[in-house]
Structure formats: structure tokens, C-alpha cells
Amino acid sequence: MKNVLFGNEMERMPVFVFRIMKIFFKVYYFFKPVDHYISEFGIKPGDTIIDYGCGPGDYIRSVSRLVGEEGLVYAADIHELAISSVEKLIRKYELKNVRTVLTDNVSVNIADNEADLIYAIDMFHMVKDTDSFLKGLCRITSANGFLIIEDGHQPRSLSKEKIEHSGCWEILEEHKRFLKCRPSVKST
Q1: Domain CATH for 12
Q2: What global pTM score does this model have?
Q3: Is residue 188 one of the residues assigned to a domain?
Q4: Number of domains present in the structure of the chain
Q5: For the sheet containing 72-77, what is the strand order?
Q6: Nearest to 136 by CA among 157, 170, 166
């Protein structure tokens, strides 16, 4: 049951769990707005940001505002309901700098070296093939870009082990809720 609710190595959560998660986060972020959390990411006007595992899109409006008209935000997720949810937000709030991308956690239809910052919140524990996943994120991150990755429902030690094993990322900083990484070597 724990794997069904938390999705450890499930890749894609069941529809009913996604709907429960959406309600839970709506309540959670009512009391703890996302702005404080994302202020730690270092997002600047003009950045290209990828919200990987965007879920229902709780961060999208704030990040869209932070990058401004010159920036771009990709909302990427493996779940069709997540993409649909973000597309509704795009229409409702006229978010002209947000694009959706349906992914399979191995390949993602975003150009090489595109992202200044990728953040993956509460989803890393769900990825089965973490090496391929992390290599894919490295491909779409610029040489000076960063990855913010939250442990999710796994111990920090396991997150660090997976990141180090991929050979793609160097852990720069450890924060209470996330690890900040940069590409270890960018080869083209």
C-alpha cells in the first residue's frame, strides 16, 4: 500500500492517487505558499526553467512571474492529468511563457542545453531508472545550469547515492528540503 500512495519506483501514479495528491497540495499550499520555497532556487528574470514532475502545477504561476516575459517555463510530467491541469492554468491565467511537455522519464522533448534550472519536487523516489533519468536532465541543462532535486519519500542518503552513481551531477549544496546540483561534465 505504501508504494501505491507514495509511488516508490512506480514511475506513474494511479489516477485516483493523482487526484488525492492534487487536493492535498491545494490545501497544503494554502497554508504554506510556494513563493517562500521557490525563493531558495535562485530563479531570475529571463531564465529557462523546467518544472520536472510538475504534477497539478502548483509552482507554475509563481515561476512564470519570476522569469517574466523574457523567460520560459516548461511543465514536464509523465502523467496526462498533470499536463491537462497545467494547460488549464495556462489558459485561465494567460501564462504566455509556459509550455507543457509529456515525458516518459527517460526521453524528454526539450532541446539540449536549454535549461538554466530544473527542479524536481517530490518525484525522484518514483523514478525506476535513475541513471537514464538524471542523464536526460543533464542533457537538457546548460553548462552553467542547476538541478534542484527533492528527496521525496526516500532517505537523503539514497538520493545522494543515486545522483553520484549517475556520473552526471555534482552535488553543490544540501538544503533541508533539497539538493542543488550542477552538471559534472558537459560534453557536446
Answers
A1: 3.40.50.150
A2: 0.84
A3: no
A4: 1
A5: 98-102, 72-77, 48-52, 115-120, 141-150, 178-183, 169-174
A6: 166
- 71 half-sphere exposure, CB direction, 13 A CA radius: 23
Q: Does any domain span residue 99?
A: yes
Report the C-alpha gap between 68 and 138 in whole angstroms.
24
- Segments forming the whole domain that contains residue 124: 2-183
Residue 42 included in any domain: yes
* DSSP character string of 13-61: --HHHHHHHHHHHHHHHHHS-HHHHHGGGT--TT-EEEEET-TT-TTHH
pLDDT, tens only, 171-187? 999 999 899 999 996 54
On whether residue 121 sits in a domain, the answer given is yes
d(CA 126, CA 104): 12
Q: Which pLDDT does position 100 carry in this prediction?
A: 98
